[in-house]
Amino acid sequence: MEFSAIDVETANADMSSICQIGIAKFKDDKLIDEWCSLIDPEDYFDAMNISIHGITEKDIDGAPKINEVAQKIYGFLDGALTTCHTHFDRVSIGKAFNKYNIRIPEPKWLDTARVARRTWDEVSWSGYGLKNVCEIIGYDFQHHNALEDAKASGQILIAAIAKTGLGIEDWIKRVTQPVDPSNVSIGGAIRREGNPEGALSGECLVFTGSLEIHRKDAADLAAQIGCNVESGVTKKTTILVVGDQDVTKLAGKEKSSKHRKAEGLITKGQPIRILRESDFKELVKQAEDLC
After folding, report:
1. Whose CA is closest to 144, among 22, 41, 60, 42?
2. Per-residue model confidence as pLDDT tens digits over 182-191
3. Which of 11, 33, 82, 99 has the fewest CB atoms in 10 Å of its CB?
4. Which domains are assigned to the chain?
5. Is there a contact between 11 and 49 (Cβ–Cβ < 8 Å)?
């Protein structure tokens, strides 16, 4: 596994005004090369941007322009799988190179924000910024330094691969799919109305975590035995089914948002039963035997 990671800082709201660029190269989960440079954007510095990254016009005095380091950037990026956290850095690179009418680097891009949203439930829909995701994976870094941010993007991909078992090529495909493809149906999020004759008629069941069986199939099984299936934990929820590998992971520190919400409701007196997927399968088998 080999890839590069990139991040840039800009002088102002114009995304072509790159004033710092950092690139980190990884191989087999290890950082093997890095490069960082201040860049003269030939543009003004906005006070807001300075307040974020601390780089001023004085700092870039004598720094190269982006066209003067283009060959260095091509060496890291051309033909390489390259990560950035959100698409903004990719856009900045394209605009900055266009500004000087030079060829834009040609890597295979992978957005680690999209990776994070498909790996950690708690950032699926919000809170997937670089700093927040790095807190989840336990990676400390100096935010808004281009090289530090590039390294952080790389670490997110490494952590996502370790957590999910998906390789780089798998992730290139996965980020083009819905955040939770197993939780999508014609009508949107998976919901099922339970069989009124089922053994568990009246129960309200929610799934979370990585399941061995397809979530649509799991929802069908739950409905057959009488459970109403919903996509999120609410005050109506009575059963939460959690993927086996998610139950004890890191002593509970990586529980999904649904899992944590269910536990919060339990502490307030709501009768929610939390089951592993394997126990759910046994529950289905036993309920079907009663029919």
Report:
1. 22
2. 544 444 567 8
3. 33
4. 2-174 (3.30.420.10), 182-290 (3.40.50.10190)
5. yes
